[in-house]
Amino acid sequence: MAVELETIVSLCKRRGFIFQSSEIYGGLGGAWDYGPLGVELKKNLKCAWWRDNVYARDDMEGLDAAILMHPRVWEASGHVAGFTDPLVDCKQCKKRFRADHVSGPGCPECGGELTEPRAVQFDVQDLSSARWSERSGPCLPAAGDGTGDFRQLSRTCSTRRAAKLPFGIAQIGKAFRNEITPRHFTFRTREFEQMEIEYFVPPASADEWFDYWVKERYRWYLKYGMRPDHLRLRQHGPEELAHYARATYDVEYRFPMGWLELEGIAHRGDFDLKAHAQASGRNLTYFDDRTRERYFPYVIEPSAGVDRAALAFLVDAYREEEVRGRRRVVLRLHPALAPIKVAVLPLLRNRAEVVELARKLYADLRRRFPADYNDTGAIGKLYARQDEVGTPFCVTVDVQTLEDHQVTVRDRDTTEQVRLALDQVVAYLQDKLAVD
Amino acid sequence: MAVELETIVSLCKRRGFIFQSSEIYGGLGGAWDYGPLGVELKKNLKCAWWRDNVYARDDMEGLDAAILMHPRVWEASGHVAGFTDPLVDCKQCKKRFRADHVSGPGCPECGGELTEPRAVQFDVQDLSSARWSERSGPCLPAAGDGTGDFRQLSRTCSTRRAAKLPFGIAQIGKAFRNEITPRHFTFRTREFEQMEIEYFVPPASADEWFDYWVKERYRWYLKYGMRPDHLRLRQHGPEELAHYARATYDVEYRFPMGWLELEGIAHRGDFDLKAHAQASGRNLTYFDDRTRERYFPYVIEPSAGVDRAALAFLVDAYREEEVRGRRRVVLRLHPALAPIKVAVLPLLRNRAEVVELARKLYADLRRRFPADYNDTGAIGKLYARQDEVGTPFCVTVDVQTLEDHQVTVRDRDTTEQVRLALDQVVAYLQDKLAVD
Q: Which of A140, A262, B153, B306 would you call most buried, defined as having the most Cβ atoms within 10 angstroms of its Cβ?
């Protein structure tokens, strides 16, 4: 059964994952605010990506480059025009104008309705490419002159890896695009977050590394529980290939509105480094001391959207089920992505000793896991609320706990319950919530 | 002994904490890139702030609001002019002009040199205030009508807290300001990250809550090891108080260039909510069912700079010391802030069994802590490198380890060494690195 996008939008609003920006002013198209649970979901996604791509690898370093850059960076990427000019777009004919060239309220060409002027004018593809390709300069081993920043970069964390290709840099950051028709909830927006890798390789093995990253990034979504039949790889045809790319694959997810891109993996060849070497006058080549050759490294760039991934994981996890005769809505989120890992629910909130014990357990658990405490309803309702936001485990404290010092731990997916000693709960959850 | 700013700049560049943006193009004033260690330091700071202000509290929820907002939000904050206009500033007379109003290369007033047009034009104070005050609308309990978004917000994570004042929202995000003269390294820049709290309180207890937050935020820096004699609170005089503030304290750090602001805690009264109620036509008052009164909540806003905090902690941690007749540079960073928590150093990199054991230990440790592995020099040099970036613990593996399965753990601050069984290292580090 396919879920409607509206169902997800409604759940997100109801439970504070995501709601519309500037809502008291009637909302702003294409901009969304993440509420308490949405913040945690995004944070968990970014942590998982960082853990898998930076911490777990010896060939990758993290970076946080400024969004504002030297104008010549933009010039080199061929889009200095419009850099600071406020633009408007015609909603009808889709033509774009400089705001100060338009006098009336309507499109000078067709009379159609115009968008409001955009504060930030970059096209996302250009933004990320410019941001990254700019970094490729300083990050690249300018071996031989002894002053290359790449060597500094590699010295920082360690010398666990020599300053040799292949080598990558990873970054997470905000990006903006001048989206004319924001739509599909958080899928197509003007402001969003990107998780990007710029991976430098010798030209001779670039095709192999491209294959590697395409498969690796596809597998990443499966690792966090995405359903394989909802995920596919699609190669760009020659007509849609960007001017800088030798080849591109998209990881696509089967959204309610169709198959759409979560991430693009681009084989950029030596486009970036050549352009920046030319524009800066710096020697950005690399000397390969194994093959005794000097060349511009090739760049493989896997670039994923945080917001799109968050939306896809929400859609993918959503289920309406019947369990033991009761209907329920459950988000079967991977434990690593679930905003709340465990909820403590006292069965009798009027029994001071039960509440005290439950509070104590909660205080203990929240030091280790994002946890919740809830005593505002009957247990069935409390379980339902936690299921709906994807909390993997609920722990109930009852009168019997006062005697046997045991609690009941309920599993979100199976709804099965186990009885555990109080002092075993932490170890049990640590084991269940561990990510390899 | 006071450290010079240049010493910190040099260390940051040499070890990849922070370097200048767009460096291959000669650099861009006021924009800096964070390298591998800088990213981790900033991340650790943000995590610590989030943990202490969101996870550890029952009266705070996290939020990630869009940077782009409805123009009327900006209008309500009184700075819609210049919102999308590229501006230039005269470096000499400091006057500001719209870029498209200036034809020549020099200032129309005094002929001085002009800055480049800015892509993003917001004043930071306005940006954060507008962003936040906009949120105060939807987040505020519009009790009585039953549709207030505040109630949704409070339902999301739990019902562990009733939708009652006092209540706060917390956010971390990028901000921009049209800084005319960026200076002091990362202290005064055009692009930076803010950690902000908007805390809503009943007017009757606003002064108490203001005091509370001033002290609480001051203590936060001490908690992470900042030297008390390098930290002070300073109250704004009437002449420097912003138009929206009833009172403001700055937490100031004693930088090499003087006492400068790390964080401001503003008592904003009902300025924001009244302005937004008026602009949006919404009822943003709150009904207090204890006192049976209806009022605009007051807002206390602690707003801290991530980049400034990172710089202050670096400066504060920096020491040049003599230990057992050897000079060393050491960053005495709090373990929670240190980018690398533990380094594994094999004493004999030519002994395959030693390297194998060290690699195995490293693989085990890095699953739990940001860890490093380094075998590229003599042990003294390896220790020195880790001291310089603030790694709290080094573990050496030697020939004896092959027999007794013990390793040497060295403490960064005391340089004292303890011999531990291999299977005790994780527990030892977990204990030493724990944050309350």
A: A140
Those residues whose C-beta lies under 8 Å from the C-beta of residue B97, and which sit 6 or more positions away, are B87, B88, B89, B90, B107, B108, B114
Among B36, B56, B138, the residue with its CB nearest the CB of A61 is B36
- Quick one: tokens of A404? 């046997």
Pick from A67, A190, A370: which is nearest to B191 by CB? Answer: A67
What is the DSSP code string of A138-166? HHS--TTTS--HHHHHHHHH-SSS-S-SS
- Residues A54 and A176 grouped into a single domain: yes
A290 and A394 share a domain?
A: no
Q: Which is more confident, A325 or A153?
A: A325
Q: Crossing angle, helix B306-317 and helix B36-50, to 10 degrees?
A: 110
- A230 and A349: one domain? no
Residues in A touching B283 (Cβ below 8 Å): none
| Domain assignment of residue B324, yes or no | no
CA B147/CA A354 separation, integer angstroms: 34
Residues in chain B within 8 Å Cβ distance of A119: 68, 83-84, 120-121
- For residue B327, what are the CA distances in angstroms to B1, B330, B409, B417? 15, 10, 21, 18
Residues B244, B352 within the same domain: no
Taking residues A249-263, report their average pLDDT: 97
Determine, yes or no, domain membership for A88. yes
**Residue A326 domain flag:** no
Q: What is the pLDDT of residue A153?
A: 40
Residues 240-299 of B with CB under 8 A from A: 276, 279-280, 282, 284
pLDDT band at residue A261 under the 50/70/90 scheme:
very high
Q: Which residue has the tokens 């633009």?
A: A87
Cβ distance B16 to A138 less than 8 Å, yes or no, reads no
pLDDT for residue A272: 77
Q: By the CB < 8 Å criterion, does B92 face chain A? A: no
Which of B61, B116, B159 is closest, CB to CB, to A71? B116
Does the distance separating the beta carbons of B69 and A31 come in below 8 Å? yes
Q: What residue has token string 């409604």?
A: A10
Residue B331 identity: L
Residues of B in contact with A158 (CB under 8 A): 340, 343, 372-374
Specify whether A310 is located in the same domain as A206.
yes
> How many structural domains comprise chain B?
3
Global ipTM:
0.82
Of A144, A175, A140, residue with least CA distance to A154: A140
Low-confidence stretches of chain B (pLDDT beneath 50): 70-84, 119-162
pTM for this one?
Answer: 0.83
Closest approach of chain A CAs to the CA of B400, in angstroms? 23
| Domain presence at residue A238 | yes
Q: Which domain holds residue A100?
A: 84-121
Q: How far is the C-alpha of A264 from the C-alpha of A187, rounded, in Å? A: 15
Binary contact (A22, B153; C-beta < 8 A): no
Indicate if the pLDDT at residue A41 is higher than 70: yes
